Amino acid sequence: MPKPSIHRDTVCGEALFILQSLRENGRLGRSNKLADVKAALEPSVSLEFDSYYLFLRKYLYIALDHREAQLRLTDLGERVVDGELQDKFGMEVGEFFAEQLGTDPAIAREADGAHSSMPPPPPEGLFDESEVTKPAEPPIPSLPRARTSGTFGFEVPVASPVPVPPPVASVRNEAVPPPPAVPVPPVAPMAPPAPVAPPAPAAAAPVSKAVELLDQRYQKLESLGTGPLGTAYKGRFNALGLDICVKELKDIFGYFSFLHRGEVLKRLKKELCAQAQVRHPGVVQVLDQNTETARPYFVLELLHGSLKGKLEEGEGKGVPVTFALRCFLQCAYALRAAHAAGLTHHNLKPENVLFDVYGNAKLGDFGLVRVVEQDASKGLPQVFVGAGGMVYLAPELIHPQRAKDVGPAADVYGLGILLYEMLTGQIPGRRSPLPSEVNAEVPAGLDAIFDKMTQDRVDQRYPDLDAMLEDFYKSFPEAQYLAKGDLILSSEPR
After folding, report:
1. Strands of 231-237's sheet, edge to edge?
2. Strand pairing partners for 247?
3. From which domain of life does this come (predicted)?
4. Rounded alpha-carbon distances, angstroms, from residue 399 to 290, 293, 348, 406, 429
5. 483: alpha, beta or left, given left = phi > 0 and alpha = psi -120 to 50?
6. Surface-to-core class of residue 349, CB atoms within 10 Å of its CB (0-12 exposed, 13-18 middle, 19+ buried)
7. Helix, coil or strand: residue 353
8. Under 8 Å between Cβ of 206 and 186
9. CB 274 within 8 A of CB 343
10. Which helix (H) or strand (E) segment is 233 a member of?
11. Ramachandran bin of 366, using left for φ above 0, alpha for ψ from -120 to 50, beta for the remaining angles
12. Superfamily of domain 213-474 in the CATH hierarchy
């Protein structure tokens, strides 16, 4: 939703409009509940409503009554609506929204050389009362949308230049003697530096607008894909010139109300920090995170393709057996390392199996399913995000009364389903044939391993990856796949 070309005055006006709306709602006895305010006002503002909400809370213009979940204006908010503190308000908008506006917060502070007592008009269309619409009318003729002044509510710059051209035109018509003065304009074209100057700013402007900066450290470039919780972008870590992946999780809040935002962010940060602690070649490295911004994001190493893409290339026939087994073992060792660190995945699916430039498999998105888990004590509803991953979930993960101690065996189940899909190109059902019966190239020794990995009852399944790997290497005494503990890595670029 944010656009690089949006002007600070627009954001100021819209933030003020939200304050005016809250006061008007209170005066008329309307609801100021978070969900109701968002639903009513979000279509009328340029940025995400979350951003305005966080800004107004951070700078103490609004407060939240937690008992009734109602927003109200603070004394500061009342003063801003009454036309006071406009310079302060504009400066804080420039600082808080610097990223969305494509400006540096320090530059935004310096740009506040002139201030006014009258903010730009708020968006129209939600109130019929004259109290709201009257103050919006006078600024419209004097403050056109395309003004170049960066000062919030500054009325002078555009009003005076507009009348000047008519007098100049009339002077030209009446004063015939000034023809000798007309030669002076020809001197102007003679200045060649003029054409040189425009290209420079014109070339620089698109670059600054095209690249979005996150915390002045990361460039956010083209989108790599969108999932149910957010969007992944290719990025660059400016300090090292390193290509990275940036994941923004703004869509995650579509499943919850504003009251649950704090709990969701708390869970998100916990899971990101847990994955960052697992330093293993088979685990996607978490490099950084910021859950305090309006659009929470985290930074990962940049990878190249996923198992989902390779399965699609196989057109329903799976992937080559040797590749499938190498990928299977790399995922098994990655999960084994994570489990040793106390971290389970519980969201295994082809989209979360990624590959580096050498074709080695790496597991990502550990624990994100726990971010949206139901918690009756905190009022969090049950949310199933991404129905495509349901077939890989162990039965104990889906059961509504599931135990809280679901552990490594659930990941063993998910990995078994992935193994079958890689070998056959199909998702197994209760009466599906064994892998070697579908694909003659599959070693028969894998059949019993797959069967035990995917038992519905936990007590009939492998309890952990160590037990599974023990049977795997016993099934291949010729050591075609090396010995237990050896991690298979590829060194040929793919």
Report:
1. 212-214, 218-226, 231-237, 242-248, 297-301, 286-290
2. 232, 298
3. Bacteria
4. 33, 34, 17, 11, 18
5. beta
6. buried
7. strand
8. no
9. yes
10. strand 231-237
11. beta
12. Transferase(Phosphotransferase) domain 1 (1.10.510.10)
Residues of the chain with pLDDT below 70 are: 1-5, 66-69, 103-210, 228, 250-261, 369-388, 399-404, 491, 494
Give the three-state DSSP class for 122.
Answer: coil
What is the SS3 assignment for 395?
Answer: helix
Name the residue ranges covered by the structural domains of the chain: 8-159, 213-474
Is the alpha carbon torsion for 290, 292, 293, 295 positive or negative? positive
Write the single-letter amino acid at 378. Answer: K
- At a CB cut-off of 8 Å and minimum separation 6, what does 480 contact? none
pLDDT tens by residue, 335-377: 999 999 998 998 899 999 999 998 999 998 887 766 655 554 5
User: DSSP labels for 144-181?
Assistant: -TT----STT--HHHHTTTTSHHHHHHHHHH--S-GGG
Q: What share of the chain is helix, strand, coil (3-state, %, to 5)?
A: 45, 10, 40
